Amino acid sequence: MVPAADPEDVPFGSVGDAERAAEAVLPADVWDFVAGGSGRETTLAANRAALDRVFLIPRVLRDVSACDTATTLLGRPVSQPLAVAPVAYQRLVHPDGEEATARAAAAAGVPFVASTLSSAPIERIAAAGGTIWFQVYWLRNTGTVLDLVRRAEDAGCRAIVLTVDVPWMARRLRDIRNGFALPEHVRAGNLTTTATAHQRTAGSALAAHTSQEFSPAITWSAVDLLRRHTRLPVVLKGVLAAEDARRAVELGVDALVVSNHGGRQLDGAIPSIDALAEVVEAAGRSTEVLLDSGIRGGTDVLRALALGAAGVLVGRPAVWGLAAGGERGVHRVLELFGAELRDAMGLAGCDTVMAARRLRTVSDRDERIVVPIAG
Asked: Is residue 237 in a domain?
């Protein structure tokens, strides 16, 4: 288990410090790949603005001498209601890549979601220990998808996360302008056909590669097929509409991630936090709902809990920690999330995650109606 990060070794006092440290060390085109969104980056900016419009109504005169951030996600204990989101090609930012991030997540007691486009194979990532979920894109070759699922099961992964909002990669103008391509030392560790991602062109080589590999014909039949071919819990990532949430529940999906892909797919899509309450209501009590896109600290986690989420996924902050400090940097970022959440919970009068899910919020002066949480 990695020791707690030494502030002198990884001097992050906040998640924002990690962001600034990462930008300082990464090449400009790699920073743009990590930081950028699609189109005019309207949704990228809106994610943050929408979170900042959610105000919590704290409770007082409650004993918060022992605030506990521990809970469960997909039925397994976690130290805080958080998982590390799937982010592709992490060796772009640090030579230890996903394996370092997975070790840090294991040490912090939270799940790590390994991407299909990880720069290390799932078997090596899973060897880091801890709780690993495996994220899949629906590829043109269905056999390859099912083989990846089998490999994830054999490696000991605890869930399959199907990303459903990427029929192809959106126009990410920073990558297009940079003519971004993978350097030779970074490969998609789970796939064999990655040559296109290394070929510099007038546009984004990664967009060309995903267009070649991803199936734009993905439908609900893919969810049903996946459900029938795995014994693991199935999570759908990229749901924003209540109608889609209800359909997912009908098909027996175990959890949903309310996500606009961090502002990297449809530019102009609703901020994830604004879609959360309706999806929670549509999903009902039997299907866990998580949130990602724009989460930058413990107060954001508390906002998500108060609006009905069981937890959150964080992507860019973990990558910032990895870029600036390797495994220790990721661990420090996760420590900060836990410390900030504990602080926010106590100040809001919540001694447990369940109590946090009973908080009320207001946004734009109108009180939010939140689905009551049992217990």
From this structure: yes
